[in-house]
Amino acid sequence: MLSRLIDKFKKGLAKTREGMVQKIREVIRLRPKLDEETLEEIEEILIQADVGIDPTLRIIDSLRERIASGEKVEDPENMVQEFLEDEIRKILQPEKAAPVTEISNKPHVILIVGVNGVGKTTSIGKLAQKFANEGKKVLLAAGDTFRAAAIEQLDIWATRTGSDIVKHQPGADSASVAFDALQAAQSRGSDIVLIDTAGRLHTKVNLMEEVKKIRRVIDKALPGAPHETLLVLDATTGQNAVTQARQFHETCELTGLILAKLDGTAKGGVVIAIADDLDLPVRFVGLGEGPDDLDDFDAENFVRALFEG
Ligand SMILES: Nc1nc2c(ncn2[C@@H]2O[C@H](COP(=O)(O)OP(=O)(O)O)[C@@H](O)[C@H]2O)c(=O)[nH]1
Ligand SMILES: [Mg+2]
After folding, report:
1. Does the beta carbon of 119 lie inside 6 Å of ligand 1?
2. pLDDT per position as a tens digit, 111-134
3. What would the mean pLDDT of 45-62 be, rounded to a whole number?
4. How far is the CA of 299 from the centre of ligand 2 (A)?
């Protein structure tokens, strides 16, 4: 189970590993003397991999100190790799301490937000599959009422995962879809409610206000809900994902993140930038488009997958 997960992570992170870890190894192989120029090249590689400016500068500074300490380095390639692994693990550590999705509410309500096209609906489908696999009764709420296609897309996931769905006509008020979904969930005895929403730009005030309205209505239908509000980010957007997370966090009371499309991107370092910048756990990562391509995020697996192989 664990090794299957690591293999999946490894596959998903292959491009980030090539663009970051393997490039750093090459640099050191060519310039085993860990001088200022080598450090600058490593710094450049980390920034290219979207590790973020601040964490990169801190990592390089402490590497510089370590080198200046005069310790005899037998194998510079190995020393730097282990050093980076430790530093990255330290940055991701709070993630590890974060609580896993605790399901003590019935129904447990998860609101999903994010900008257009990041992978919200697909992530909901994958979460529905994950919960269905655990024997839970899942209800999906088609809160993205902007386009008929968005409702159909969620409907397909409902069928595929054997979940219930509450949907209204295109153009309907998404808060009322959420309200109806919660009433339906309570009368049908659903375990999990996953609420889809329309993509919104974090810069558009009225759309962000709409999320607040949805939240208020949900709380009215079931006091205390939503129990989780997860922001979906597209890993391929790199540093832009960090900006989005910051702004959504200000309005939407986020409890965690889903990092979609981590497969096939060379920008996987963004996980490090996000963990460094925000006090928010990455709960799940998307590693493909299929129903089983969503995994729990685990810092240790991430580091292992990034550096091994
Ligand atoms: N490769 C890959 N594609 C994904 C992932 N998650 C979503 N997608 C794709 O991204 C596109 C947009 O996804 P969608 O869920 O409709 O985004 P939404 O607008 O936020 O609801 C679709 O083509 C999905 O198949 C992922 O983890 N990996
Ligand atoms: Mg959608």
Report:
1. yes
2. 999 999 999 999 999 999 999 999
3. 95
4. 28
For the chain, percent of residues with pLDDT exceeding 90 = 72
CB 104 within 8 A of CB 267: no
Give the mean pLDDT of 170-181.
96
Cα 99 to averaged position of ligand 1 atoms, centre (Å):
26
The pair phi, psi for residue 242, each rounded to 5°, is: -65, -45
Compute the distance from residue 51 Cα to the ligand 1 centre, in Å.
23
Report the atom number in ligand 1 closest to the C-alpha of 286.
27
Closest ligand by atom to 119 CA: 1
Domains of the chain: 2-97 (1.20.120.140), 108-301 (3.40.50.300)
Q: Is it the case that residue 285 has pLDDT exceeding 70? A: yes
